[in-house]
Amino acid sequence: MSARRGVLSLMAVVMALAAVGNRAAQAAPSPASSTETPLTSAPLITEHLIVSPAGPYTTVAAALAAAQPGATIEVHGGVYPALVVDKPVTLIGVEWPVLDGGGRGTVVQITAADVTLRGFVVRNSGDEPDRDHSGVIVAGDRALVEGNRLEEVLFGIFVSQAADAVLRGNEIAGKLKYEEARRGDAIRLWYARHTLIENNSIHDVRDLVIWYSQQTTLRGNRVERARYAI
Question: Which residues pair with 160 in a beta bridge?
Answer without folding.
Answer: 190
